[in-house]
Design goal:
alpha+beta, Alpha-Beta Plaits, 8-stranded antiparallel barrel, 8 strands, 16% helix, globular
């Protein structure tokens, strides 16, 4: 493949403190989303997603080791990183996070429900018209269903079809613990890798959020995209 090739991701699910959610939202969107990741080496795309209270009510199973309680984690952000260049990014990112913390630019008014770096495992597309995975966060899909599972416990091909245009599957990798400036980050234990299946949905008119309930999933959680530069959905969390 010529050009930029997707190889890794930073996937982070966050729950902000409700009392200061507006300030947190503005900080993350205007500063951290851009300066904390996307300006770094090899990071070439990113997108934020949100789970309203109605979507959180559709999460399953009711008790999950990923999110406890199961409705924890209002925002999830996906960052795409070029293949074979993850170390270029992390060598920049960890010192940069420490610098931001020293400057008071790391907002502590949230906790990490699930934050890890991942390696790409596979991409399964519905048909030839599906966007390349490199462009998935640019295509403006109206819905996303995230499925956490033990490695190979869920077949990505079983998740594709109907409203699911493509599934991009990643597996978590081990990095230093604790991660700088990210207290409470989880799923970085080398003894317990986790697969994350990102199901990109191009039709939210039907049962897109509940269509799939794969056996063996640790958590199935639907999201919709945030609207950059607005406070939309903050009152629906």
């Amino acid at each position: 493949m010529s050009g930029i090739e997707l190889g890794h991701a930073l996937i982070t699910m966050i729950e902000p403190d409700r009392e200061t959610i507006l300030e947190y939202h503005r900080w993350y969107e205007k500063d951290h989303f851009l300066a904390g990741v996307l300006t770094g080496p090899a990071a070439f795309a990113g997108q934020r997603w949100v789970a309203t209270r109605d979507l959180k009510a559709l999460r399953r199973p009711a008790e999950s080791e990923v999110a406890s309680p199961v409705d924890d984690g209002s925002f999830i952000t996906l960052y795409w990183i070029e293949r074979d260049k993850l170390s270029d990014h992390t060598d920049w990112a960890f010192p940069e996070a420490a610098r931001f913390a020293a400057e008071g630019r790391m907002d502590p008014r949230r906790h990490h429900v699930s934050t890890s770096y991942y390696d790409l495992v596979e991409v399964v597309a519905r048909d030839a018209d599906s966007a390349p995975a490199e462009l998935a966060v640019h295509r403006q899909y109206p819905g996303l269903v995230v499925v956490w599972a033990d490695p190979r416990a869920v077949d990505p091909a079983s998740l594709v079809g109907g409203p699911v245009d493509q599934v991009v599957t990643f597996r978590s990798i081990s990095l230093p613990d604790p991660l700088p400036a990210m207290p409470g980050a989880v799923m970085s234990d080398p003894a317990r890798p986790i697969d994350v299946h990102l199901c990109f949905v191009d039709d939210t008119s039907g049962d897109w959020a509940t269509r799939h309930d794969p056996e063996g999933a640790l958590l199935v959680a639907p999201f919709i995209p945030t609207v950059p530069g607005t406070t939309r959905y903050l009152d629906e969390l």
